[in-house]
Structure formats: C-alpha cells, structure tokens
Specification:
The chain is an alpha/beta fold and 612 residues long. 53% of the residues lie in helices and 8% in strands. It is built from 22 helices and 13 strands. Helix 1 packs across helix 3, helix 6 packs across helix 7 and helix 18 packs across helix 22. The protein is globular. The chain starts with a helix and ends in a 9-residue tail after the last helix. The structure holds one RNA strand of 77 nucleotides.
RNA sequence: GCGCCCGUAGCUCAGUUGGAUAGAGCAACGGAUUUCUAAUCCGUAGGUCACAGGUUCGAAUCCUGUCGGGCGUACCA
C-alpha cells in the first residue's frame, strides 16, 4: 500500500509538470516540479498542504495564486481527475498553498486495508531493493562495552530494521577491535600471571595465587590488571612486546590465548546485545583480525596505483582538499613508519571487501561525529583507488555524545566510562521500584518482565527520541517518567489497549470477529477521526525515518499516536459503545496496539507489555 | 589558524530539499475521576529562535560577519 502522501506527491507533481512543462524548461532547464506535499501545519488547513507551487511560480516568474488555480483546475478536470478518489476539492490559500482534506471513505478504506495486513500494516516495499552494508556497534574487544557504544549499537540496529522492512538486503557488519598491540599485554598477563601462578599453586610451589582465569570476572578486569602490570614492570612490558610479535607471526600458542580473550569478550557483548534487543550475531563479526591479512595488499595496491607515497617515513595517500594546521596537504596514513597498519588501512580493506565480496550498493557507517574527517578522507581514498563504483553510496551516519547531568561526557565519579551493563542494571532496578509502587499485586515474574521491558526500553527510547546529531543529557528520571515522550508512556498506552481487549473478551465480546467482520467505518467523534487519520500515516513516518536514518521521526510519530489514542480513550467508550460504533472503535484500538507494537518492537527493538 | 557541528520557553528537547500564527514534555497555575488501568486527559501562562546584516512573496532553516560552546586537525580508533 502506497502512502497517501506519496500518491499525492506523484500525482500533483505530474500535473504541475504538465501545467508548467515547456515554460519551465525554457527558464531554468530543470526537470521535474516537485509538489512538496507535506502534512498540514495546522488542522484548519486540512490534512496535507502543497508547498511546491510558490517555488515553481518563482521559476516561471508568474503569479503563484494564479498558477495554483491552474493546477487545481487541471487536478479537478474531468479528463484528468487526479484527486477525487482521495481528497475533497482542493483549496487555494495564502500566497499559493493548496490545501487538501482526505475523504472519509479513503480513511475508512485504508484502515480496513491495514487491518487485513497484520504483518506489515500495509507498508510498501522499495521498488529497487539494494544491498546495504551497515557497519555499527564495533566494540573494543578486551574491554567491556560502555556507554560510548550505546548509540552506534542501537541506532545501527534500528537502521537495519528499517531498511529490511523496506525490502533491502541488509548485511550487518560488526567491526570489532580484536587486533592490535594491546593483545600482547593481555596474552602476557594470561600466561605469566594467571596460568603460571595457578600452576605454582597447584604444585604447591606457591600459596599466594591472586588470580586464576575463573577469578577474572570480565575482560575489563583483565585489561586493567594487565595494563597496570605493563606500566609498572618493565620486563613484563618487554615480554608483552614479544607476544605482539608472536601473535602477528601467527604463533599457535599466542593465537590460542588471543582466541580465549576474544571469546570471553564476545560472550559479554552477546549478553548486552540480547538485553538491548539488538539483532547482531557472531556471523556479523568482521573485525580487525579479519582484515589484518589483507592490509599489505591494500598498501601495495595503493603504491602500485601511484596513490601512496612515502612521507616522513610513513606511507601516505594525500586526497585533494584536505589541509593540516599549517595549510599543507593532510595525509591518510596507511602504514606507520614502524611498518604497522592503522585504522584507515583496515577501513580501506573493509570497503574493498564490502564492495567486492558483499556486493554492497551502499555502505552505512554508524559512528560518532568525531570520526567525520577520518571517513571523509577514507572515502576519498577508496574512490581514488577505484574500489567503489561512482554510484556506490558511502554514508557516514553520525551521532552526538551522551552527556551527564553536568553537560559533560557521561563518566563515573572516578572518571571511567560507564559500563553498559551497569547502566542497564540501574535502569531496570529503577523501573522495578516504580512497578513495585504502582502495581504491587502483580506476580514476581510479571514484575520482573515489566521492569526489564520498561528499564531497557527507557534507555533505548530516550536515545532514539533525541535527534541523533546532537548531544543529549542522560537522565534516568526523565527517561523513566510516565509523562511525556518516554518508553513507559508508550508501553502504558499499549497496555491500556490490550486491557480493553481483555476486558471485552471477559465480557463475552468476540473482539476479533467483530473487527474482522466490520465492513463499514463510523468515525463520528473528532478524536476518533484524528486517531484514524494518524493510523493510516504510519508508512510516512517509517519512510521519513528510514530516508534520513533518523529514529526520532518514528518516535515522534508513535508519541503522537499514543497521545491521540489517549484522547480517544477519554472521549469514546469502546466496550459500552452502541452496536453501530463499537466495531470501528475496536478496530481503532486494535490498529493502535498493532502499530505501537510494530514500531516499538519490530523497528526499535523495545518490548511491549500486556499490562503494567 | 583552518574545518565540521551546535546556540530555539525557567529546564530537557522537536521543528522533513525555505512555507501560513515556531511546537512538545517537565516545572507553574486551573479543570476533569463512583475509570475500559488517572502511569491519563482538557485548558492557562511562558519566545528578540545567541547577536548584527543580507538573499526573497516568505528565513529558526540559506549566505556573510560577530559572540559563546563542543569536536576534529601526521603516524590512536
């Protein structure tokens, strides 16, 4: 089902092209006359407004109101009747707006159509599906996931879900940091402290064993202890360097320890992904170690193509238009003077793999805004090298930082990054307290389930609902508030609908049958009509959200929906409604629940709950 | 220095290639409740869209400058 907005845009644009066609080509040479149909800014103007007449009139150097009249006349003309199946007769207003009001029959027909399509709620699929690689999350192995990974992980996840819904082939790529010099000290620590100490204890040579592998609660602790030892013990640091070399050279023992560390860390990440409802699996992992063997080839080819040159001992590519502090050309360094490779090299190898092997039409990078320059330059080099086709899209989807209440990047009191696990634990704990207070009668199981859904949902929803490009201030109190655009408010709205349906069934009303059999729609109350109109616009919200990779467009829609439902709920009894009104109201309830569930659960990965 | 992003109500934030009288939530004030879950709804009040110019039928949005903040800027990722 095509969204009303798209149909209107297409039909009106066509007519505008016909009305202006030749004249337009003469004046500007531009093709196409977008109607710029937008939701009306004020309900008094109807449901949609056409904004495109005025810019067109400017191009044609004609009077916008006169032009609007011509367009409306053409839209209405008997031969080219473009609107009467959708809208009432269009009205011209202000300097040259065309206002459109939906016909009740269209609203009714769309509601019924959505109702019949339980899986997709009438959402259309892309005409030309693309293969889209989405690079997101990318935690550092050997350290726990912290708040710095939250946004990439969940925004990336949402983008994947949106694009998949639109019918694109989405390939998730988790570019984990599982390679590098830090593994030397970690391996060294495992070998020399964990295993040797344990062995000495086992053989009675030592009674003082501080750690064995099982005592390591997590990779964070391993990292911290190894780092501490590396700093204070010079000979330990020397041995760490030895392990780096061993690992690079493919030494079996080094590899075994490395694998141990990676798998320990991955199991921690997996746990976080599951709690967050993020659909990343092990098969999506293509980390630095995966690209490591390909790096010499990347550099060699850049050299062969004459793009990479030696500068100050390092191998560099100088894409055009980038300058350093002194205004001199800024390089992308692909190999350090000591021979080591860098992030840029890995990213270039990844682009080759994604275009060459994965056949990507588009690659989306979900990382914070600070990496903007890095990607700009890497993209430039990849294009210079001919590793991406001109039509291949490389998109950097950026986001701002998560700040504490003081407006500075969120840290613990001791200045460390806040662990994602602890953040989620606290959110769930706080949600639990609220459940306990509001609904003490529920069973332990239900309380746990609700606290989990609300707590995790609140963290995610708060992030999604902020414009991704700006920083936002993290506040448990605000995200867990029952009022306002929050997860609990949305979940509550859903739970209320479900409650109506439960009550109805208890009363012996055959809710599903009544909905399935409802052929005519009766929208009499303003809040009913308002809700109905909003329900048929879900597709618009999804496509604008996906088009700009902005989850907040979707949350804004969902919040509007929940508010409109609440008004309807207040004004219109459902179960006690007269028999001519009840089927429609049951249908509105059902579609509200399905839409909230689809948005929250299918697209944002946030759990809905039947009661709270 | 240069580049990128940002500055909107007391607070937290929306604002869709420039569109009609700039919107929400919180906080404040006033109303609605023998409830289909009030974890709700309705209303009132609150603004020099940082500042100054410019572009045009029309600017929070585009351009120039100023002030304030964040980030980046040769071997981290």
């Amino acid at each position: 089902m095509q969204s009303v907005l798209n149909i209107l845009e297409a039909r009106i644009s066509e007519v505008m092209g016909e009305v202006s066609g030749q004249a337009l080509r003469q004046c500007s040479g531009q093709a196409g006359c977008p109607a710029l149909v937008r939701p009306a800014t004020d309900a008094r103007f109807g449901d949609y407004q056409v904004n495109g007449v005025m810019p067109l009139a400017k191009q044609l150097k004609t009077n916008p109101r006169k032009l609007a009249e011509q367009i409306v006349a053409k839209l209405n003309s008997a031969t080219a009747d473009k609107l009467s199946d959708i809208c009432e007769s269009p009205e011209i207003a202000g300097p040259g707006f065309i206002n459109l009001r939906l016909k009740p029959e269209l609203i009714a027909a769309n509601l019924l159509q959505i109702s019949k399509d339980a899986d997709r709620l009438g959402l259309e699929k892309a005409e030309k599906p693309k293969t889209v690689v989405v690079d997101f999350s990318g935690p550092n192995i050997a350290k726990q996931m912290h708040v710095g990974h939250l946004r990439s992980t969940i925004i990336g996840d949402c983008i994947c879900r949106l694009l998949e819904l639109q019918g694109h082939k989405v390939i998730r790529q988790n570019h984990i940091g599982d390679w590098g010099t830090q593994f030397g000290m970690l391996i060294n620590y495992l070998v020399n402290v964990v295993y040797i100490d344990a062995a000495m204890k086992a053989t009675g040579l030592s009674t003082k064993t501080e750690y064995d592998l099982s005592s390591l609660r997590d990779t964070e602790e391993l990292y911290r202890k190894a780092q501490e030892r590396n700093k204070t013990d010079k000979s330990f640091a020397d041995v760490s360097r030895y392990w780096v070399v061993q690992l690079q050279n493919g030494d079996e023992q080094a590899k075994r320890y490395w694998e141990k560390i990676v798998s320990l860390s991955l199991s921690e990440s997996k746990e976080i992904y599951e709690r967050l409802g993020v659909l990343l699996t092990e098969s999506d992992i293509r980390g630095e170690s995966f690209y490591n063997p390909k790096l010499p080839g990347v550099v060699a080819e850049l050299k062969k193509k004459g793009l990479a040159v030696e500068s100050e001992g390092a191998v560099c590519v100088f894409p055009e238009g980038f300058k350093d502090k002194e205004g001199k050309p800024l390089p992308v360094i692909v190999q350090k003077s000591d021979g080591a490779y860098l992030y840029a090299t890995t990213d270039l190898a990844a682009i080759r793999y994604r275009v060459g092997e994965l056949k990507a039409d588009k690659i989306i990078y979900v990382t914070d805004a600070r990496q903007g320059l890095h990607f700009e330059m890497v993209f430039a080099v990849a294009r210079m090298a001919g590793w991406v086709k001109p039509q291949t899209e490389l998109v950097h989807v950026t986001f701002g930082s998560v700040l504490g209440e003081d407006g500075k990047p969120l840290k613990t009191r001791s200045g460390e990054n806040v662990k994602l696990k602890e953040l989620l634990d606290e959110a769930v704990e706080r949600a639990r307290k609220v459940v306990e207070e509001k609904n003490p009668g529920l069973s332990e199981d239900e309380k746990k389930k609700i606290a989990n859904a609300v707590g995790i949902g609140a963290v995610k929803y708060a992030d999604y609902t902020n414009n991704r490009t700006s920083d936002y201030i993290f506040s448990f109190d605000k995200m867990l508030a029952m009022e306002g655009n929050t997860a609990p408010y949305m979940q509550y709205a859903y739970a209320r609908v479900r409650s109506i349906q439960r009550k109805g069934r208890d009363k012996g009303i055959e809710v599903d049958k009544e909905i399935a059999q409802s052929q005519s729609i009766s929208l009499t109350e303003p809040s009913e009509l308002d809700l109905a109109k909003h329900l048929i616009r879900y597709g618009e919200a999804v496509s604008s959200s996906a088009g700009d990779y902005r989850p907040n467009y979707l949350t804004a829609y969902l919040y509007d929906l929940a508010q409109k439902f609440s008004s309807f709920y207040n004004d219109c009894p459902v179960l006690d409604a007269s028999s001519d009104k009840r089927p429609t109201r049951l249908l509105l309830c059902d579609l509200t629940a399905k839409t909230i569930e689809h948005g929250l659960h299918n697209l944002l990965g946030i759990e809905v709950i039947e009661q709270m």
